[in-house]
Target: ABC transporter ATP-binding protein
Amino acid sequence: MSEPLLAVRGVKTYYGNIIALKGVDLDVNEGEIVALIGANGAGKSTLMMTVFGKPQAREGQILYRGQDITRMETHEIARLQIAQSPEGRRIFPRMTVYENLQMGAAVTGGQHFASDLERMFTLFPRLKERMGQRGGTLSGGEQQMLAIARALMSRPRLLLLDEPSLGLAPLIVKQIFGAIGELNKDEGLTVFLVEQNAYHALKLAHRGYVMVNGVITMSGTGRELLAKEEIRAAYLEGGRQ
Model:
């Protein structure tokens, strides 16, 4: 079997003396959508940020295409065709939609800028309508679309998506998850998705992991996890949208 695109091995991450990740093992294979679900504060976002180099793991190893990236700086990791759409969107509020997308393309030197811009506008038509508008004046859903599009402008092989549905209306969530599924199916984009909305995430994902207090407690296909009684009770009751 070929090696995973991303392999997390025994990773421990601390904030000062507090251990946030307690020896995490996880794989993301080329062409997969892998979801990491869990309650708020379980350590999901910490794992995603650790993969992207901030904070760095104190113990364990993170391998990307067989290369050890555990001690790399974030800007070096970004050059390896890994892109992150962080929790809370973090777009540049004073810049226009167009300028935000230009920033995303900076990693590749912008040589495919025009064609990539068209791709993003096809994927998220709303952004085309808002092209000259400042990022900070967009709705929450539009800002999320912009954050994902900005990440995609760097032409990643691996997209790290942190809580893309957070605080958004069900219809917008459906649109965003639809776009992620489309990118995976049409372009073979590999996606590692951290989500509190377990129903949407597991429905979309090929495989999933459950995190509780900095530890992976369960894994399986998206369908298997959706069918488990304890998952339904902990994460899905009343959560269907």
